[in-house]
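Lay summary. Proteins are chains of building blocks that fold into shapes, and those shapes determine what they do. In this project we predict the shape from the chain. Here is one chain we studied, written as its sequence of building blocks.
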Amino acid sequence: MAEHNPGLWPATRGVETAIPADRRIDGVAEVTFGSVLSPLRGRKQTRLAYKDEVNVFRRTLLYAGPPYSARWYDVGVQGEKAGARVLVYLRRRDGVRTHAFRRHLDVLASTVAGMGVLRELRTQVFMPWNEKLWDTPNVAHDNPADQRFHASLILGFADPEARAAFFEAPEVVSLSDALAPFASAVHAYDVTDALTYVKGGQRLSHYLP
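And here is the predicted shape, written in a compact code that computers can read:
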């Protein structure tokens, strides 16, 4: 993530769009499993990560999604890479059921996909957060209930100019107003680097940008 990340999402009444400095996320490691048994097969690698985290991180949080909770949208032209990305975390508003929240997220993503400005679009809906899923020693895992997230969006653009134009578009302001009854916080992070270390189930000798 960019070092300076105040929040790219347009200001919306009743929604926290400014990213609090004390809860700002510096980076994300995203892992997609081949099956529900894959985490068990990777226990050796997990043990190594457990030991090493204290050397790198002050706080780590794991958000996991059940099978088929992530969606990739066919946007842009095949072969064109994103020159700018945004990672958006969404917090479900109290009193909103998970099904209604997920359904509105699908509508939001479909609408954004149809705008014709994205080169990448992915959505994820998370299971309820549980510290025991990733309770590494000597690293903080504090995540109060009112600070937890329930879904994410990854948006890819041709370049930073296209990204800026997207968030200034009246359509996005309208989408955000419609999102307000379902989400109490929308934190949009400027992503500076997205590096691939594993592709097709194989570890790469050198990461891909």
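What the prediction tells us: The radius of gyration is 17 Å.
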